[in-house]
Specification:
Helix content: 55-70%
Largest sheet: none
Radius of gyration: 25 Å
Order of helices and strands: HHHH
Shape: elongated
Number of strands: 0
Strand content: under 5%
Amino acid sequence: MQTATWYGRFSKSASHFCGRPRTFALAVAVIVVWIVTGPLFAFSDTWQLVINTGTTIITFLMVFLIQNTQNRDTEAIQIKLDELIRATTGAHNALLDLEELEEETLDAFRRKYQLLASTARNELDQGSKDTGTPEA
């Protein structure tokens, strides 16, 4: 098993740190300090530029860090779901890589499963059980 790269470890740590309530409180405190110092600096253009520049830089960098973490989490979830499909008797292995298919093909699969769900709800309303597989 391959160990995480420095960027992967950093992005995960940064995302975890930035998602904490204390970090949010710190960000709010910075904004409050900035607002309170407004009269000190006569609400000057420089005073506004400080917060605009700071928030823009932080937002720009956080987008990449959070996206990296989100991509890895999504891929891990997808692999886990693929394993559940693969290991489940009667499951359709053709569904293993749906995320790689074109939109039209996904729409066709979605319509098929929406029809199955609608049929199951109708049968449930008539007293049937909502378990099992459609092939059974």
